[in-house]
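FAQ: What does the model actually see?

It sees only this:
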Amino acid sequence: MRPIVRSILVALLTMEARAVVRKYRPSIIAVTGSVGKTSTKDAIYAALSSYASVRKSDKSFNSEIGIPLTILGRPNAWENPLRWIQNLLDGLALILFRMPYPQWLILEIGADRPGDIRKVAAWLPVDIAVITRLPEIPVHVEYFETPEEVVEEKASLISALKPSGTLILYGDDARVRELSSRALEARTITFGFSEHATIRGTRVEFIYSEGKPAGMRANISAEGHSAEARVSGTVGSHAFLPLLAAVAVAASLDMPLGKAITSLEENYRPAPGRMHILSGLRGSTVIDDTYNASPAATVAALETLASLNIPGRKIAALGDMLELGRFSVDEHRKLGALAAESVDLLITVGFRARDIAQAALDGGLTEKNIFQCEDSDEVGEMLSPLLSDGDCVLLKGSQSIRMEHAVESIMAYPEEAQKLLVRQEEEWQRR
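And it is asked to produce this:
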């Protein structure tokens, strides 16, 4: 799409979205952060969907186009001009006529470049703002002068919070907790695993089925009450954080802990490509974390793989992490050092990931157990004949590395790829 056409389209969609918000006055939950936004948005939706009329951002609709589309309830039209015209007409109809509209909107707010969130915060009235983890080296840092500028951009969402609103913060990071000082009139709730957290998770344990990872459970404490929560199809303490954030939102609405957990267990499913457990070839297990890759999320994924109690080998296929700018070499090498301690077999994909391979070799992983590939298709071809019963494979990389291709090659039921994997839309398949 040409820049001038995109700018006009964004302006029109935003104008319509603002008018719809003014007319229907939905309560708005806005979620931002550098790790876990989409899973957090999905978990909040799962917690609230049994008790209210709720709409959430589709997939990762978190951009200057995706946010208005969510408010208007319209799909991405990609490069089809007729579908964009239809979206605009449907948005106009919402403004001109009284139509059914959800009570709550759950919006994911992203930032690729400076000013992205500030532009949205200037017109979006937020009732509950949720800020997830803001690691030291976040994804998209390439377009900011410093990592601190990324934090400032994410924190600018607080300016959209209503005076009577609620600010929900990841409580295990002092930098994130300190953001509460920017919303002194708002109620603040924190979530995490540390003693600082208002909504706290403890005793995270993996659930196994026939010796293979199948999910996890943890105890959740909130306002003097506690209960166990279980989630199937995903593993990792970091993958449990979205549930804690969802309980925090539920608590802000005075929903009892038990009801929130029940709704989560009934409705929450891990999104494709986010630590999603799949059956692999010949009795192996695939941990599909291919949606995207940042240093913090990849470290968490490797630590999860290392902590699993499985009979077979632990294998990691790691692709390039993009948009890290001058931090790229150091961050890839850190992953290699961790991989040397975490896996039995390492496969890297892409030019930048060569630093992962070299650091793993320097860290003691033998050369015969390190393979370097040019693309994700080559990973699938390499892994397919190697997997055996009890093996567990973690796959992760930035979006453009397209690691989902490798997942499709080694999943036990590739006919389910359209339903289970990321980037299966026709537009993505043509790229």
